[in-house]
Amino acid sequence: MKQPDYPKELLLLALLLAPMVYLGIIWNTLPTIIPTNFNVEGTPDRVGGKSEVLLLMIFLFFTNALLYFLFRYIPKTEGEPGPEAAIHQSEYYRIRFMIHIYLSLFTGGIIFMLSQGREIIMERWAFIGVGILIAVIGLYLKKLQPNNYVGVRTPWTLQSPAIWKETHRMAGTLWLCTGIVIILASFFLPLVTGVFVLIFVAFILAALPYIYSFRLYNTDKG
């Protein structure tokens, strides 16, 4: 397996850690009481403390960290031709950068608005951000070509271009629809419930395409 590009990995890790470092720097300047919900007149009808902010930021940090480790350690690269491997690896890093830059800027933006006393419903914006990311990944999966770096890389999709195409069509639709549902659900999901829902959703998004590719393989085998 090709050695990782360490400068790029360090940059990705810096993007991963940047929002938490920023939060640590401005932590003492955050308001003690933070409005977390507003009525139709624009006045707060629910407030929270710094502990809710910390819980939300930890959730976003672990979401980002999970994506980093999934992309960093899962890719299978053995047996791919040299020129094609170089092209796929470049695309693979580009996707990783886009995801981590998005999450870093999005998380940093929430922290900044909180530090400025802006009237935001932080959990709503957090779940909307995650939903947008999932939906965009879904759109990307639908047109992803077979490779050993990114996508639903099961033993069965890697053996058959047809199974790869059908699995990614299904996975792309699943991720896209899930992202849209999360965006809509963000308008009524409370923070703690939403965190547990997203953990369950993450398991479903990973498991169903894997199972689907296995069933396609066995169907083809008769």
From TrEMBL:
The keyword Acetylation does not apply. The chain crosses the membrane at residues 12-34, 54-74, 95-115, 121-141, 170-189, 195-212. It holds the Pfam family SdpI. Keywords: Membrane, Transmembrane, Transmembrane helix. Residues 15-60 form the DUF1648 domain. InterPro entries: DUF1648, SdpI, SdpI/YhfL. This is SdpI family protein. It comes from Chitinophaga defluvii.
